[in-house]
Amino acid sequence: MSIRSLVALLSAAGLSIAFGQEQARTGETIFRDMCASCHGDKGQGVADKYDDPLYGERSLASLSKYIDKNMPEDKADTLDADGSAKVAEYIYHAFYSAEARARNNPPRIDLTHLTNRQFQESVADLLGSFVEQPAAGERTGLHAEYFESNGMNKKSKLKKERDDAALEFDFGAGPPVEGCSAEQFSIAWQGSLIAEETGFYEFRLRTPNGARLYLNREFLNGDRNFRDDSDARRQPALIDEWVSSGDTVREATARAFLLGGRRYPIRLDYFKFKEKSASIKLEWKAPHAVWQVLRAPHISPARAAHVTVVSAPLPPDDSSIGYERGSAVSKTWHEATTKAAIEIANEVVDRMRALAKTRDNAPDLVDKLKAFGATLAERAFRRPLSAEEKTFFVDRHFDNDLPPDVSIKRSVLLIIKSPRFLYPEFGGKADDTTAATRLALSLWDSLPDAALQEAAQKGELHTPDQIRAQATRMMADPRAKAKLKEFFHEWLSFDEAAEINKDRKAWPEFDDALVADLRTSLDAFVDEVVWSEASDYRQLLLSDHILLNPRLAKFYGMPAPAEEKFEPVKFDPAQRAGVFTHPYLLAAFAHQKSTAPIKRGVFLTRNIMGRFLKPPPQAVAFEDEKFDPSLTMRQKVTELTRNSNCMGCHGTINPLGFSLENYDAVGRWRTTEQDKPIDPVADYTTVDGEVIKLKGARDLASHASGNRDAQRGFVRQMFQHAVKQPPAAYGPDTLARLHEGFTNSGFHIRSLLVEIAVTAAQFNLPPAEPATSTHPRRFFGD
Amino acid sequence: MNIRTRRRFLRDLGLSSALLPFLGGLSSLRAAEAMKPRQRIVFFLSPNGTLPPLFWPDTNAEGITLKRILAPLEPFKNRMLTLKGLSNKVRGDGDGHMRGMSCLLTGKELFPGNIQGGSDSPAGWCKGISIDQELKNFLQSRPETKTRFGSLDLGVAVPNRADPWTRWSYAGPNQPVTPTDDPYQFFERIYGSMKDRENLASVLDEVDEDIRKVSKLVSSEDKALLDKHLTFVREMENDMKEPREQALVSPQVKLEPGVPNDNDSIPKLFRMQTDLLVNAFANDMARVATLQFTNSVGQAKFRWLGINEGHHSLSHDPDDKAESQEKLAKMNVWLCEQLAALAQKLADTPEPGGTGSMLDHTTILWTNELGKGNSHTHDNIPFMLCGGGLGFKTGRALEYNNIPHNRLLVSLANAFGHELHTFGNPDLSSGGALALA
Q: How far apart are CA A620 and CA B121, in angstroms?
């Protein structure tokens, strides 16, 4: 090879190297050369340089612009717009965007145990499945039977039957109904109590006469009303004030833990025997409510079955990923569920007659108990029991000389403590019974009912249409209503509102009763929208009316309804819009005396706009007294968060919060603050980098209701609440697909929940097996 | 006969492992242990900072002069030790309240996280074990100091949610300990119900077997959760083997029935919890206890003192707002009175199997998530120790120059014979234990 040709070759190689470098200036190489030293090779961050992993929710365009302007730090001009765009595109798709993160670290369906709510609901339905569940009916009030007595305590002549709407009576010295003796009479009220919320309920009984209150006791065949207090022999009363004390009006209280969305048997037995006067009043205090007379619509004359409510308190569920789920076990949880198992085992023995349809000393007692145990295990485990399992969980406990009640107790303990009950889905192949399990959890937080079990057994819970048909049926059940209600409480941060505490000097009328009314008002409004035919999510944000009773109307300066109940009242649509201008939330996200734009903004950012916020880089408390008192709240917040470290998130939080500055700390409309006009106008930057001028709450509502990210955020939050797993674990496009369906349905909330449940239920189901129905699997006990 | 078949044999007789110790009597080890004096510690937390001028005692030639907040402890003045100038210097993720709470007994940072509870400042759980659990593990690892529970993790009016504001005791990284704030639940736990236990003991073997079977069906990632579950089942099996009611030296406390677990019952709840605690100590069920009053940012309303505002809201008011300062003073005095009542109960109870009173063998440590409420400082955390459990020289008010509180945690371990040199973040432990003996 000649020197000349070597030179030519080298220069050609040199050229090609130079050319290659130009070509290779891809986003990836730029990142490696100029960014990775501070951000890490995969954007994971570098200690002492830039610690935080590189991810966020800027759009590609906005990211590109940001890099061009600011990066590399202190040498921003070494990277031009073209290079910035390339590197932005690279990092966006490699690790920055939510999609990239989901791809790099795909979420999976984690093994979880029943949440507290799922445990409670499952136990209630497990034992409830062994007794008849009477229909709820349409009537309200309690069924009352008025008797003339023949001697103390004997109901002799039935004088009147009717439904009483409220449990407050003052008969004075007269008879309770016409034609009845005024001296001695007796009344029995019975039916069911409807509990809306899960929690402790308090009861207060006042009477100068004799009365006993029974709640959630089992009515047994043979309980008759011929004699006062006929079931007292078997059932302990919740309040026992049977013996009067002169003419003194006595007061007694008691409390009970009840699960929301269920009916409980209630009976109030009452009699007068020669006291001077007769009166009785039963009040209650539901969670988040104030004392009031127990009245319709919270009572119904329809009978109800006893509900098994585990009283052992369970430790709060792990909520470290933003929603509650059973992803952690602790000693406390183990002990609490053990205690619950003991309680349930004891209850089974106490109620042997009703549950196992047998009694002590019956000749077939052991057979009946074994059959009961096997059915209990099948229902608790949500699938048929093998012969081996039947021996393990039930029969072997009877293979000794222990009394049968001890044997069944031990069997029940083992069943309730089994991972097969506590972990609803623990591997194995998914099949129709898995679909039934998932539907029951997503829609009810509970166990499959008989119809679901039957469909699964017949192999009719397999295709999306079959599953959807069941889900649609299940939506009509009160348990679905209760679960949706719980979701909305979470979405709207009702927990936060439970702690409302306002300056009583500034607003003396803003008391516990008013707060309770506000909660009722918002709850009823959400119910109204969700259960209307349109069930339109946008209405939650855009509605131009609020439900007010006279007290609320007076406080908020609105026209008062004529009657003592909640009526829709139209407001000025320029002043308010939908849920987040509801005074319950406005007051909840506010300080004692002043507004809290940051609290409001964080709530709006996360819950309403569906955006994510990173943890604040530094903790800063808002301390009102540190500011010049002549500043407006908006000025104070602006001052507090002006640091560019803060503005990363507060650039989003503050404008949203400021747009609600027209509402004071109790949610009243205002146009000035300290004699300065309120400025609710703010520039809000969307996820896509678009800047929108919000002129106040109505503007914000219009934007949110039509915004894709807000809608998706709503879908995501509902999915997490229903399924307790991340949507992406069901495929990367799950959210997008559900959002598309949601959009096509006219943003129908109930349909969305159905579709979420169907998505979860059919996940990984194998193709339908041919003709399983000729050999149906045994499911129930006898 | 091994333990398993022995248990099976007993079960067939209608007896259970819960009764085993009564058949065997106390082990000779435990009898011998009576010779060695017991040491106990109670960690008591109140939130929202203190009022420094009313808290820190003066020192003079005669000893110390107590100020208003600590005045209820006057009868125990010579058994007290206050430590000023200790600061919680743990930094990192989490707001000041979270770290004030979750780093107080751990001396270690929080994991990054996104817990999105009641406030705007997310973080995760603590990265380390807390000193109470460290002591528990140490004492439980040695037969002569092993007790049925090791530690009793208690609270009064703790909100029903789990986050770094409501937990200060940690069994390890990411393992917050849930305090029991319901006295009836605490009662059940320490005295139990013989019959239920018997039934339970008889099925735990099978629960164990069942979990192992199910474990084979799950993925390796998920297996960890079931393994953890299984360890609790086994712990419970071991628990069952420990002595029961018949072995009680001090008779069961009788609780007033039907006291609701709510704000207005706090005075009653305090008394019930401390009565049970003293009894559990007297029966040597544990040597370590935590007692957590509400939580960080706790909003108890001291209505029994005529104060209707929440504790936390008041704690934000500035120093010159006399009315709020007076209310906070009253609240802190009331809390100290509860401590004094606990100290009195211990002082009035002779040490079982030992000499002197139980207070001679027990140290109560009162501390706080913050140094001062309205500044949210982590400097000068109020640390007050009372009693003779640790062998520290008492009747003193010591002052340090703004050093990390980790060094006190090291001293506590050393006082139990646990020779640690650092605790929590090692950098914050430099200098080692404080000389307190």
A: 9
CB contacts under 8 A, A 382-401 vs B, are 392, 400
Cross-chain residue pair B116–A418, CB shorter than 8 Å: no
The predicted complex's ipTM stands at 0.82
Which pLDDT tens digits describe chain B residue by residue (437 residues)?
233 333 333 333 333 333 333 322 233 344 444 457 999 999 999 999 999 999 999 988 778 999 999 999 999 999 999 999 999 999 988 888 889 999 999 999 988 754 444 444 557 779 999 999 999 999 999 999 999 899 999 999 998 666 788 899 999 987 889 899 989 789 878 876 656 777 888 899 999 999 999 999 898 889 999 999 999 999 888 877 765 544 567 777 877 766 788 899 999 999 999 999 999 999 999 999 999 999 998 999 999 999 999 999 999 999 999 999 999 999 999 999 999 999 999 999 999 988 999 999 999 999 999 999 999 899 999 999 999 999 999 999 999 999 999 999 999 999 999 999 999 999 999 999 999 98
- What is the DSSP track for A156-210? EEEEEEEEESBSEEEEETS-SSTTS-SSEEEEEEEEEEEE-SSEEEEEEEEESSE
Q: How many whole angstroms separate alpha carbon A144 and alpha carbon A146?
A: 6
Note the Cα A592 to chain centre separation in Å. Answer: 27
Residue A623's SS3 state is coil
Of the candidates A243, A626, A353, the one whose C-alpha atom is nearest the C-alpha of residue B320 is: A626
CA atoms within 13 A on the CB side of B6: 11
Q: Which two tokens stand for residue A434?
A: 């898995």
Is B217's CB within 8 Å of A426's CB? yes
Q: How far apart are CA B224 and CA B228, in angstroms?
A: 6
Give whole-number Cα distances, A331 to A137, B44, B133, in Å: 44, 22, 14
Is A462:A452 a contact under the CB 8 Å cutoff? no
The C-alpha of B289 sits at a distance from chain A's nearest C-alpha, in angstroms, of 16
The position carrying tokens 């499959």 is A448
Distance to chain B for A169, nearest Cα, Å:
28
Burial class of residue B35, CB neighbours in 10 A (0-12, 13-18, 19+): exposed
Partners of B45 in beta bridges:
B292, B367
Of B241, B234, B229, residue with least CA distance to B205:
B234
How many C-beta neighbours within 10 Å does residue B220 have?
A: 6
CA-nearest of B17, B232, B54, B50 to A328 is B232
Residue A550 in contact with partner chain B when CB distance is under 8 A: no
Cβ contact, residue pair A499, B188, below 8 Å: no
Q: Which of B7, B200, B233 to mutate to test the interface with A (most CBs of A within 10 A)?
A: B200
A311: nearest Cα among B256, B185, B155:
B185
Give long-range contacts, CB 8 A cutoff, 24+ apart: A38-46.
Answer: A38/A72, A38/A73, A42/A94, A42/A95, A43/A91, A43/A94, A43/A95, A43/A96
pLDDT at A157 over 60: yes
Which token pair is A526? 């959400």
Global pTM value = 0.70
Say whether A615 and B207 touch across the interface (CB within 8 A). Answer: no
Q: Are strands A199-207 and A250-258 parallel, antiparallel or unpaired?
A: antiparallel
- Please spell the DSSP secondary structure of A530-596, one letter per residue: HTSSS-BHHHHHH--EEEE-HHHHHHTT-PPPSSSS-EEEE--TTT--SGGGSHHHHHHTB-SSSB-
Inter-chain touch A331–B318, beta carbons under 8 Å: no
Q: Residue B362's closest CA among B293, B278, B418?
A: B278
Q: Which two tokens stand for residue A577?
A: 């819009």
Q: What angle do CA A334, A339, A340 make, to 5 degrees?
A: 100
AA letter at A423? Y
Rounded to whole angstroms, how far apart are CA atoms A702 and A710? 11
Residue type, A655: P
